[in-house]
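Running this now, will post back.
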Amino acid sequence: MRVAWQEVLLILLVVGFAIGFSFRAGFVRGRQPRRVEKEQRMSPFTPLLAHQYINLITHRKSGELVATPVWFVHDQQRLYVMSGRNAGKVKRIRNNAQIFIEPCDARGTTLGDRMAAQAHVLDAVDHARVNQLLNKKYGMMKRIFDLMALFNGGIKSRDFIEITYTT
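Update: finished.
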């Protein structure tokens, strides 16, 4: 019996959503909050570290703000975000590096204060390191996401964005 890759993908999606629902509903005990390292306590991004998502708020050429909830990871006083190479947020960052970030939930509902930052798209040399950091933070859900991207070609067309704090 031969199983199509679409069926495998559907099964993985169902399992992923079931795991996510179980954690939210309290059926499975989630990970304990990570101990915040000294370097992270001194970071301007400290208020964001307890959250799973941030709103990446970019500027259109017209000046209109566009908020996109994204996964992020913190490393060495910087935040890193993964995106598709042709995504609107990447194009907007290339046009205007001045952004805002704020903690949010998966739907983009704001959960904290907005802060100004600057972003730029990383060179391919740093992609593996940042991808490894995201894998460590998001675990199984990130790996399921990567598996889906493997089937639709998204793995090869990724960019990573580095975010630095501005005053």
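Residues 39-165 form a domain with the Pnp Oxidase; Chain A fold (CATH 2.30.110.10). More later if anyone needs it.
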